[in-house]
Amino acid sequence: MAQTIKTPAPKAQAKPTDKSPVKLVFDKSNYRWLIISIAVVAFGFILMAGTTDIYSNTKIVLAPIVVLTGFAIGFFAILKKPEAK
User: Fold this and answer.
1) In this structure, are residues 34 and 79 in contact, taking their beta carbons and an 8 Å threshold?
2) Domain of residue 66, residue span
């Protein structure tokens, strides 16, 4: 005599009841500041580039200040709270 194997019934998929929009961590202004900081850091590295006159004031003073400023702007962009609506 053959034995019957019982299989569980397929579960019904639960439909999400909450249809509110997704709340993102960052606001549009945060992303703008982040893009600005990336551009400032890239500009600082461009100022550092090159092989001629490696001891110029632009390469050893100005460019590191520009790069650090770009990192500070990025830090600000991450920590800035979104505006309340």
Assistant:
1) no
2) 28-79
